[in-house]
Amino acid sequence: METVCDVIQHHSINSITCDVHQGPPSLPFELLEEVAKQALSAASAEGKAQWQTAAGFGFANHMFRKAFLPAWFRSFRVREAKDWELAASIPNFYYWVRELACHSYHAILPTHVSLFANFIGLRRVQIDIHRHYPSNPTCLGVFHDLTRTLPPSVQSLDYTFDSASQLQAAIPMAARLTNLRRLSLNCCKLTCHGRGFQALAGRDRFLAQLHISDKYGDTISKELAPLKSLQSLTVGAFLGPRSTVQVHATLHCALFPGFRIIAPGSECHLTSDVCMECDDFFGTRTLQNEMAASKTLAEALPALQNVRWSSWFTHRKDGFNSFTIDRSDPAVGIVVRKHFEK
Q: I need a labelling partner for 62 at 20 to 30 A (CA). Which of 22, 77, 221, 335 fits?
């Protein structure tokens, strides 16, 4: 994936935007427009055409050239701080971007936060800065400022972090974006890089921070009440009983002597056998909490269609339990159903 730095290195801005006098195209404009659309359409910031391909296409004809820059910059990914300055030097750049991704804390400096307000047509924002939080505790402050400056056009927000305190604070901040249709506030749970069974202790201490009270649905529904258009919600919080982590550790971790220990495998914390007894203890209660919280949210958010919660007890590879909201029968009211992968 090329950055704006790569763009500048291959072609000067003047050569990109200058109007070269050429004869009229030999094909109808409608056909040229369709060719440009097919050649430059981007499914995502990762999947769009390489810059060399797009630039060569643009230089072939002045009408193509007019079309290819907006198409190529529709998805913009920031990898380093200087990308902002280089991109801003391109006329009309801010008007073209519809999807913006920042996957490094170093790509969003406090001085850049105000730039987000310039993306007046922005629809989707992805921010993943969890890898840098330990050395940069101001990440939450940056997110706080971002929600103040993001344009009201934003309809989808994905934010990934690695601190439970960030989750708690990010929810009311995100509620300022009242046109959101999709909100994902996810917490990366792969914070312990040790292999094997001994890694469980540190991981469990972290997961314990993410456990929320049984009445969490009431709290979060009040905080997200302004999001009347929200259809999809993902929350990186565990709604199992708070004792789940402690029991899990005492049943399965050799670092806690005096308790019955289940013999670990090479990667036992990733196998279904290890937590089977925890599932027996807490699985039903956790599911009840998740369904109750989902229904509370559905009652407060009239457009909500699905909710996902982080869960210990799920067979999904993404680590979430997913629920769908059924409002089809007014006589029955809101019905919450767990979604099972086919």
A: 77
